[in-house]
Specification:
Elements (H helix, E strand, L loop, with lengths): L18 E5 L24 H5 L10 H7 L7 E5 L3 H11 L5 H25 L2 H5 L5 H16 L7 H8 L3 H12 L3 H17 L6 H7 L5 H12 L3 H21 L1
Antiparallel strand pairs: 1-2
Length: about 260
């Protein structure tokens, strides 16, 4: 990707799972992509006026854009950020949302704000120089993405940490350290987050029991799955499924009244 004249990251190469926060007004971006490969890209455009409503108390959402919001700077920028497991879950929820009409618009707007909140959190929690500097070597970065893909593909019966490291050509220390730096969580944390993401998709339907879903996402027992689900989502699988059904029923009644 080439963005002539952009502050911080003029030319760069992006990998699957990358995400960024940028202000590219009046910029012509050039994108080069490999031929005959599946490509999926999600862009969310937000009006500055809407962001300013969250910054009314004078507490800047980020030093990087504080002056921009206050009209003191018009510098264009592109800032790469770490794709954490939490961000990956929200992206998947956006791409596979089960709603339509007014419910879908409400859901997507809420998820877009959730993504922005996580991005601004990264900008404010990490030192500015730390964000600008690459934390993982390009070769190791590619291997870490391979490890992530293995976990996503084999989440029901994942390889051991030692086997995963050997499979992608890293030692265990680099695998564990790199996962924290690149994805913002541990290897096990990423695996659990992906399992919960798959579980939420299955719970949206009524065909499978909670016990069956637990086995589908790699848990030996329903109780073990329920504990992990509640720790991640804040409610049990049954409560989650019932809440979705209740919400859909409320909107159906609302639309019927209209």
């Amino acid at each position: 990707m080439i963005n002539p004249g952009i502050e911080r990251e003029e030319d760069r190469e992006e990998s699957a799972g990358d995400n960024c926060l940028c202000h590219l007004a009046g910029t012509r971006c050039l994108n080069y992509r490999p031929a005959n490969q599946q490509f999926q890209h999600l862009s969310i455009a937000v009006d500055f006026k809407q962001i300013c409503t969250f910054d009314s108390a004078g507490e800047s959402l980020s030093p990087l854009i504080g002056s921009l919001l206050r009209g003191k700077s018009t510098n264009r920028f592109h800032q790469s950020l770490s794709s954490t497991a939490a961000i990956s879950i929200v992206l998947r929820q956006i791409l596979e949302n089960p709603y339509s009409g007014a419910t879908q618009r409400m859901y997507l707007e809420a998820k877009a704000l959730e993504l922005l909140a996580m991005q601004f959190h990264q900008l404010t929690e990490q030192p500015d120089t730390a964000i600008m500097s690459p934390m993982v070597r390009p070769a190791d970065r590619e291997r870490l993405h391979q490890a992530r893909d293995v976990l996503r593909r084999e989440f029901e019966q994942p390889p051991s940490l030692q086997a995963l490291a050997k499979q992608v050509g890293l030692n265990e220390f680099k695998l564990k350290q790199g996962f924290r730096q690149l994805f913002g969580t541990t290897v096990f944390g990423y695996l659990r987050a992906h399992r919960m993401e798959q579980a939420q998709q299955l719970l949206r339907g009524r065909e499978l029991t909670v016990t069956t879903i637990a086995h589908r996402v790699g848990y030996a027992s329903r109780s073990q799955f329920s504990r992990a689900f509640k720790q991640t989502v804040g409610m049990t699988p049954r409560e989650y499924r019932n809440s979705l059904c209740a919400e859909l029923l409320r909107w159906e009644l609302y639309l019927l009244k209209r």
